[in-house]
Amino acid sequence: MFALDAKTMQRIAPVVRRVLIVDPNPAAARLLMDLLKGFGSREVVVEGDESRVLDLAREMEPGLICTERAGPKLDGEALVRRIRRSSLSCRRAPIIMVTAEATASAIKGARDSGVHEFLRKPFTSGDLQRRIENLATKPRDWVEAVGYVGPDRRRFNSDDYAGPQKRRADKPRSGAEAAVAVKDQAMRILFSALTQFDSDPLQAVRAIKQQAETLKALAIKTGDAPLAIAAAGLDTVLAAGAPTRASLTAPVQAVLKLAPPETLARAG
Description:
This is Response regulator. The protein is an alpha/beta fold. About 55% of the residues lie in helices and about 15% in strands.
């Protein structure tokens, strides 16, 4: 049995303590369960039917979810999107998608559904360990938008991709550059959430709340008084309860007035 050193076990313990495996193949699920127990998992539950996963996740509140990409009663990408857009307390839990199909479209589909890591079958204990250590030691910012909910896709790291860095955003940034990037992304999400409000009001409100919190914290950190005032105004409307597109339009637009024109041009 593959054994981890004490320091590694300590690092990954919070992630692997409770694990939900979604896989209709009993043999594959058993192999993954054995490996996870070797990594220190105390509770591992297996489910092969997508229709029962959300109720099970609500009951056990897993710290990690591992899901097969496809099966007789499973669409892994659709399941991940349902989890991310749910009211589950574990909706932000790390998700590893496992599949024998590691095509470019499969990797992109997994990334865009909201997974943290991608694991190709057949895999070794070391492959799984690296994915879990990434989850434990390299947390990714959370993106709460309308079109996408999940970990920041700019930091998606599949070991199945061996090419160069895909974006300038993949490179290390200074504190000032990082602040500009955070503000830029929050403004674009705000714009899109208001524009797409009618298509998914619940998720739009959730996205707007997250961006209001992000921008308010950023304004305080950078000493941006106009942004702090505008974000606080939006926060006040949200806190009043039952926000609608009509009630949110003016405070959202007050925040967006502080965005560079090129930011909103990219959002559109």
